[in-house]
C-alpha cells in the first residue's frame, strides 16, 4: 500500500536536470534504522545535558570532559569503552544508555542528552523505502504485541510514551502493538520535518560502483526536490550508482537512477522467509507467513473440525501462530528441532511476568507432547523432530531424533523458522560483505562485516550497513549504528565542506 501523497512525497517521473552533483548519502530502507539516521543527518545534534547525572560514573566523567562537543564529534570508541549490556555493539550500548540510563534495571531516569537543531551540519540525503516510513512494521499484523517494552521502541528526542499520551492511550503490560509502532514511526518523520528526504514506493534493483568520470558529463535522472547543497567530492574516483523503480499511484513502474558517494543499507531482514528445503515445500498448502493462517481462518478453510495445522519452528512468530490457533480452537501439531529445556530457546530467556502469553506457549510445549497427554486440548508438541517431506495428499512425514518416522494428515503447514534479507540488488547478493563470505547474509548467524565504530563495511568503503543486517536486532540498539554511521559521514563531510 502506498502512503498518502500529502504526507510523504511519492516519486514523480524523473526529470533531467543538468549540472546535478552526486548525492552525499542514499539510505536504502525506511524502517527505524533509516529514520534515525535521517534525523541525525538532518542537523539534529546530541550534546551532553549539563548538570545531568548518569548512573555509570566512568561514563559520567568522560561526558563531563567536553560537554560543549557534540556526541557525534567525540571519540565513540573512547566513550563506549567498558559498557556492558544486552548488545554486542559498543556504540549501540552507548547510545542506548545515554537515552535510557537505567532502563535495564527497571529505572525511569531521564536521558542525559539534549538535542539541538543545527541546519548547517545537515548532509543532503535520500531515504528510499517500499512503503510508508516504518519499514516492516507495516507488514506485521496490527494487533501483534511487541517483544520489547514499549519505551524501547522510541526514536531520539520523542519518546514513544509521549506519542501514546497524545493518542490518550497507554501501554498494555508495558508493551505496544505493531499498529501503534508503525503509526508512531510515520508521525515521527512528520514531527521532525524529515519527510522531504523520504521517497516512498521505491524498489531498488541495483547498487554498483561506477567511475566518477563516466558520470561527470552526463545528467542523472533526479529524485531530488531542490538544488543540491553539497559539492561532490572531486577526489572520489568511484561512486555508487543506485537503480530501481518507483510505483506510481496508477500502479505503473517508473525507473530511476541516481549516484551517491555513500550508500547505507538499512533494509532489515523481513523480506525472505526461511525455507526448510524439503520435498513438497512448494505445495499450495505449505506457507511461510503467519498471515496465511489468519487468511485461512477468515475464509473458514480451517476450523475446530479440520485436520490439524502443522506449525514448524520454536521462535516468537511460531508462538504467535500457536496462540492465534489456540484462540480459534484450531488443532495444532507443533514441530521443532530443539529440546524444550534448551537454553538457546527464546522462551527460556524471557521473564515470565512480562511475557505471560509466551510463557503459556512454553508450558504447552513442555506438558503436551505426543508421548504425554497434558491439559491443553487441540495441541501436540513434538520436540526434537523435523520435517522430511510434504505430500500432495496433505500428509507430512516427520522424523524424531532416533530416526523414527511418522505420517500426519494436516490441513495446512506454517513453516515459521525465521527470515533472511533480500540483497538481490547487490553484486553476488551481498555475500562478499558478510562475516563469512562463503555463506548468505543472516542477521543472527552471519551479519555484514562492519567497523563497530563507524558501521562502514570492511569490504567496501562508502557502503554502510545498519540494523539486523549488521547484527543489531532490536529497535533500541539499531539507533547506535545510526549514530556511528552519522558520526563517520559527518567526519567525511568536514574533510570535504560544501
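Sequence proposed for the structure above (498 residues):
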Amino acid at each position: 500500500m502506498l502512503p498518502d501523497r500529502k504526507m510523504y512525497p511519492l516519486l514523480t517521473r524523473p526529470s533531467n536536470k543538468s549540472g546535478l552533483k552526486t548525492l552525499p548519502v542514499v539510505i536504502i530502507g525506511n524502517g527505524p534504522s533509516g529514520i534515525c539516521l535521517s534525523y541525525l543527518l538532518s542537523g539534529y545534534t546530541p550534546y551532553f545535558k549539563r548538570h545531568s547525572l548518569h548512573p555509570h560514573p566512568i561514563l559520567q566523567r568522560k561526558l563531563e570532559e567536553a560537554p560543549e562537543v557534540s556526541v557525534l564529534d567525540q571519540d565513540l570508541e573512547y566513550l563506549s569503552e567498558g559498557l556492558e549490556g544486552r548488545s554486542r555493539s559498543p556504540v549501540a550500548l552507548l547510545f542506548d544508555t545515554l537515552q535510557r540510563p537505567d532502563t535495564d534495571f527497571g529505572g525511569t531516569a531521564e536521558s542525559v542528552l539534549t538535542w539541538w537543531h543545527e541546519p548547517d551540519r545537515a548532509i543532503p540525503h535520500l531515504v528510499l523505502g517500499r512503503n510508508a516510513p516504518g519499514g516492516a512494521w507495516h507488514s506485521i499484523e496490527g494487533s501483534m504485541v511487541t517483544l520489547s517494552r514499549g519505551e524501547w521502541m522510541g526514536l531520539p528526542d520523542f519518546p514513544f510514551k509521549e506519542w501514546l499520551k497524545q493518542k490518550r492511550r497507554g501501554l498494555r503490560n508495558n508493551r505496544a502493538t505493531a499498529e501503534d509502532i508503525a503509526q508512531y514511526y510515520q508521525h515521527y518523520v512528520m514531527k521532525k520535518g524529515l519527510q522531504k528526504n523520504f521517497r516512498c514506493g521505491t524498489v531498488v534493483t541495483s547498487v554498483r560502483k561506477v567511475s566518477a568520470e563516466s558520470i561527470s558529463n552526463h545528467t542523472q535522472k533526479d529524485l531530488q526536490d531542490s538544488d543540491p547543497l553539497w559539492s561532490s567530492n572531486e577526489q572520489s574516483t568511484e561512486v555508487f550508482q543506485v537503480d530501481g523503480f518507483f510505483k506510481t499511484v496508477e500502479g505503473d513502474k517508473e525507473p530511476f537512477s541516481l549516484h551517491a558517494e555513500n550508500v547505507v543499507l538499512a533494509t532489515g531482514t523481513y523480506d525472505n522467509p526461511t525455507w526448510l528445503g524439503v520435498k513438497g515445500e512448494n505445495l499450495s498448502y505449505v506457507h511461510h507467513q503467519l498471515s496465511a493462517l489468519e487468511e485461512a481462518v477468515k475464509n473458514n478453510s480451517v476450523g475446530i473440525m479440520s485436520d490439524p495445522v502443522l506449525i514448524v519452528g520454536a521462535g516468537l512468530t511460531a508462538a504467535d501462530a500457536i496462540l492465534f490457533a489456540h484462540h480459534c480452537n484450531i488443532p495444532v501439531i507443533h514441530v521443532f528441532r530443539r529440546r524444550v529445556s534448551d537454553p538457546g530457546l527464546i522462551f527460556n530467556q524471557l521473564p515470565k511476568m512480562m511475557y505471560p502469553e509466551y510463557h503459556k506457549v512454553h508450558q504447552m510445549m513442555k506438558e503436551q507432547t505426543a508421548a504425554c497427554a497434558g491439559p491443553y486440548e487441540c495441541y501436540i508438541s513434538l520436540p526434537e523432530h523435523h520435517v522430511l517431506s510434504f505430500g500432495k495428499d496433505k500428509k507430512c512425514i516427520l522424523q524424531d531424533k532416533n530416526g523414527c518416522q511418522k505420517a500426519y494428515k494436516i490441513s495446512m503447514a506454517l513453516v515459521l523458522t525465521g527470515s533472511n534479507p533480500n540483497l538481490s540488488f547487490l553484486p553476488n547478493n551481498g555475500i562478499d560483505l558478510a562475516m563469512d563470505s562463503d555463506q548468505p547474509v543472516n542477521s543472527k548467524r552471519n551479519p555484514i562485516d562492519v567497523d563497530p565504530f563507524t558501521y562502514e563495511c570492511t569490504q567496501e568503503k562508502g557502503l554502510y550497513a545498519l540494523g539486523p543486517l549488521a547484527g543489531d536486532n532490536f529497535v533500541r540498539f539499531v539507533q547506535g549504528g545510526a549514530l556511528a554511521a552519522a558520526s563517520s559521514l559527518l567526519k567525511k563531510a568536514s574533510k570535504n565542506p560544501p
